[in-house]
Structures are given as C-alpha cells and as structure tokens.
Design a protein that fits this description.
The structure is a homodimer of 310-residue chains.
Chain A lengths: L5 E7 L6 H17 L4 E3 L27 H13 L2 E11 L2 E9 L5 E6 L11 H4 L26 E3 L4 E4 L8 H9 L4 E6 L2 E2 L4 H23 L2 E6 L1 E4 L7 E4 L3 E3 L5 E4 L5 E7 L1 H10 L21
Parallel strand pairs in A: 1-2, 2-3, 7-8, 8-10
Antiparallel strand pairs in A: 1-15, 3-4, 4-5, 6-7, 9-12, 10-13, 11-12, 13-14
Chain lengths: 310, 310
C-alpha cells in the first residue's frame, strides 16, 4: 500500500430492469471515470438492479448472485484491464436461503480482495430490507473465519488494502451510525465509501426533500470530521415506480468530503461521475491540527455497548 | 420529569477580567432569557472568567472555585427566584491541586442536581487545558460513588433529571466525540447542552474561519441526527488578548438544533440570547420515522473500545 495521493471516483446512475443494459452502462461509467483519472471507483448500492426492496416478494431473491460470480468476474476483468480498484455493491446469494446486501472490492490487478456485508439493515415503508438481507456478522476472537472472508481487520466492519490505499466500505443505512465510521477509521481506512440507495417518497417530497438530503450529507460529513478521513457516498438517481406504491425518487447528491468535512465534489439529481483526490498527507495534517483521536476516552466508552440506559 | 414541551435558552456573551461584572452580566442575561420564556438556561464554558488556558500559569488556578461554592450558590438563588434550571460551567476546585472543567446543573427550585466534569480535554496552541484540568473520571461498576456525585446514570457521561426534562451536559471538546453524544443520549437525554469556548487564531482566520465554524456546527448537528435529540451549543464571543500571543477571537455562532439536525435558533458573533422549544414528542416522532436506534449493532461495536486497530 502506497501513501501517495490517488484519485477516487463515484458513479451515480439511474437503473432500469434490464440487467445486461445496467451492467454495461456501469462498465462504461467506470471507463469514463478511469479516463478522468479515477483509480478507486465505487458503484452505488445494489448497482445491477432496480431497488427491489420496495415490496416483499420472494421471487426477487432471484436477483441475487454469488460473490464472486458472473457480475463480479466481469468487474474483475475490467479492473485488470483499466488498472483500477472497483467497489461492486450487489445482492449476494451466499448459500441456499442466505442472502446479504454486500460489496465486493476488486483490486487493480483484478484480484478479489474480499466482501463487506451491510451491518445495519433498515426496514421502513418501501425499504423492506430486513425481509431480504441477513445482517453482516461478527466473528469473535477465537472463532474460525470462513475461507472466502479475506482481508485485514476484525469482522463485521473491515478495511481493504488496495493497490492505492487502505479503504473502508460501508453501505447506505450504515451511514447513520457513528460507531461504524469510527471502527472502520480506527482500522486505518483513508476513505469511507458509502454505496447508497436513498430517495424521497413522492408524497413527502415537498416538505422533506431538502431536510432529508441535508441530514444525509451532514451526518456523513460529521464522520469525516470526527475521524479525519475522506468520505465518499455514491447514491442512485431516477424515479423507480412500484405497482401498489407511489415509488421512490432516488435523490443522487453523491459527494466526496475531505477529512475536515469540506465537500470537494458533489453531484445533483442527474446521472454523474465524481472524481477527487485522496491525499494521505492531508489526513495526517488534519489529525495533527485537530487531534481528536488523541483524546478519545476509551476507558469510558463501555456504555456504548448498551441498547439503552434510560 | 414531565414530557411536556419546554423552552431552553443559551447565553452568548463576551467576558472580561472583572469577575463580579461578568457574573452580574450573566445573571442579567439569565433574567432576560427567562423573560423570553426560557426554562432551562445554559451559560458558556468557564463562564465567569476570560478563557485563561491561553498560557500555562500556576497563578491562574486561583480562578477556580469549589462547586457548590459562592458562584453556584448565587445561581441557585437566581434559579429558585425565577423558577428556571441553570447550567453553570465553571473552573472547579475539587480539592487541593485537584481541578476540573465542570458544569453544575441547578434545578428550578434552586437544588443542586449535580456536576458534569469534562471528559475530553484538549491541548493545542492557546488551549492548554491538559495543564489545568483533570479529565472527568468513570466509576466502574462496584466502585463507590463520592457523596457529592448525585444524579442518575453511569459516571463519566451523565444526565440530569430537571423539573422540565432529562438533559445531558457535555463541554466543548466533548463535542467532537460521537461516543459522548451517543452514551448521553442512550441515558435518555432530551437535549445535549454543549457549553463552549472556541475561537479563531487571528493569523488563521482568513483561511479557516468559515471551515472551522462549519465543522463545529456540522459535527454537532450530526449528533442530533444520529441520536434523535436536540443539541444546544453556547459559545462565547469577543477577542481576548493574551500577552505573548495573538489572542483568540471567540466565534460565537451558538445554535440549537432539532432532532433531525435542523437549526432552529442561531446567533452570529455578537452577544446574544437564544430561546427555542424542546418537544419530547418531536424526539419520538423523529426516532420513529428514521429509527436509527432500532438497528444499532451492539454485538459488533466492541472494537470501538480500542485506541487504534490499524
């Protein structure tokens, strides 16, 4: 792993029902991002399908694939061809009836570095994820680690040593949890990537569009500030209908924040590719000048492991 | 403790060397805030003196007072007279050579509810707090609790059951630590109060004034969002000179955020009193609609107790 600056890229696209067209469009977007200099490229959550969790439907488990599998293998070939790292968030079929919301990290030589499995699973109207996804699990000290589970760090939250730098991957709902960001940063992540699928309910949009997008951006900028790391969130765009519902309008607004919480690249609600530089020296500079990690009270944080103390 | 809405007030003032004048000015500001309807009123960090930590000087330990002591007793009388809760942040002399950066909470009947002692102590150019303050300590399960340490909750971080609601108090540098906000919220705080003394170094102001104030506001709004609590930060204003240094320009910008991170009251860089309503039903509403507390992975947060895992 180098400590030299490198460029990261985020892909923000609308997704339709034709899987081949969707994967091809993302391959083209990865080529475009690489042409703009991006070396670590992150796709959006569950990138190869419409956001299918809007209803509970057992047929939709058919959308899942093994990881590694056909789509991640395509991405491995593309990563090797372009010499870039690709973060591939997909619906993972791990075994019969065992499904996760996952992200594979493919290194610049095409090697599969490992998989992160979403730890915090939402369940809200039109986001029925607890129906589809088993939360990522934690291997306690002394437990055996599955052979397909590689890479450094304790399980649950994890980091990946890519050709260009050590990165962390978290997925969507994870972004609301300071604990996830903190633990991943403590493992040495230089960037926290958040592939995402978040949108507005059409009936709520007039009142809540701005506050929701702002809360989403603010809490993630807070993770950058608290930990002195870059944060990069890739969200999808476009209205996705769903019979029997009003559908979801995914709000895009993908962004990259520097380690002091300053937005250095930001999209709107149209398809977009964002590219920005990650400089490990900037992380060191930020943490020296506002040395929050120095003063953490790890002797006093035990109560955080409680559900509630009230 | 009631679950009815109540009003909170923040006092943002400049501070001079004349202690009697400073305490009197704050008493008047508390009367003004109460006249505007405030029922829980928070003063700024180390409210009764200039920010003395700009240099290390053993004489300055003379600025400390016992808590309870003469100044908190004045505040107890005022609280009882006005029927308001007052948060009184001061330099506490706990014993010979034992000093803390503390905040007393006085209930609306004048009773002393207890003291919070700042847990995270900074130490940076012009903020030499590790010289002056012993960090607040944690009493582990089974350890005896000092007789003067009252109120519910585990020690270190704590909450106070006032006449109007359960509140948490944290102090300044604590605001950069999501763990402190989380633990205090888990103990049932409806509001996190952050008495503060943060300012700009004059030489850095042109480049850093806006990013620093924005980072300060953003991370605290993030605590509101992550926890579904109100956040209220009271900062001082005014330029305070210090021989041998360029001094500090305290930047004010005290604010109150609702449980979704929306600013509902905000000051500039002039002296100000802010008043806003806290509605416990709004906390419930926010947490139901974005139910982050439901999905915390307390089985997976153990690594947060590490200093570093890289």
């Amino acid at each position: 792993m180098s400590s030299k600056p490198y460029k990261i890229g985020l892909v923000q696209l609308a997704v339709g029902a034709d899987k081949e067209a969707t994967v091809s469009a993302h391959e083209q977007a990865i080529r475009d991002a690489a042409a703009q200099g991006a070396q670590v490229i992150c796709l959006q959550e569950l990138f190869d399908a419409p956001y299918f969790c809007k209803v509970t439907d057992a047929e939709r488990f058919n959308l899942a694939e093994p990881m590694p599998g056909p789509t991640t293998e395509r991405m491995q070939r593309l990563a090797k061809e372009l010499g870039v790292v690709i973060i591939v968030p997909m619906f993972e079929k791990r075994g019969p009836g065992v499904y996760h919301n996952s992200a594979a990290v493919v290194d610049a030589d095409g090697a599969m570095l490992g998989i992160y499995r979403k730890m915090h699973i939402p369940d809200d109207p039109l986001y029925y994820e607890k129906y589809y996804f088993i939360p990522g699990e934690v291997y306690q000290h002394g437990e055996s680690r599955p052979a397909d589970d590689v890479g450094p760090g304790p399980r649950g939250f994890r980091v990946f040593d890519t050709k260009f730098g050590r990165i962390g991957v978290l997925i969507c709902w994870d972004q609301w949890y300071p604990e996830a960001a903190r633990i991943t940063a403590l493992m040495g992540a230089q960037v926290l990537f958040y592939p995402t699928a978040i949108g507005w309910h059409p009936a709520e949009k007039e009142e809540w569009a701005v506050p929701q997008a702002d809360a989403w951006r603010t809490i993630q900028r807070g993770h950058a500030i608290a930990n002195g790391v870059y944060v990069a969130a890739a969200n999808r765009v476009g209205f996705e209908p769903e019979p029997g519902t009003d559908g979801i309008e995914f709000f895009g607004h993908s962004f990259i924040s520097d380690p002091f919480g300053r937005i250095i690249a930001e999209a709107g609600t149209d398809p977009a590719i964002l590219v920005a530089e990650v400089d490990p020296d900037r992380i060191e500079y930020t943490r020296r000048n506002w040395p929050f990690l120095r003063d953490r009270r790890i002797d006093a944080y035990g109560p955080i492991l409680n559900r509630y103390i009230g």
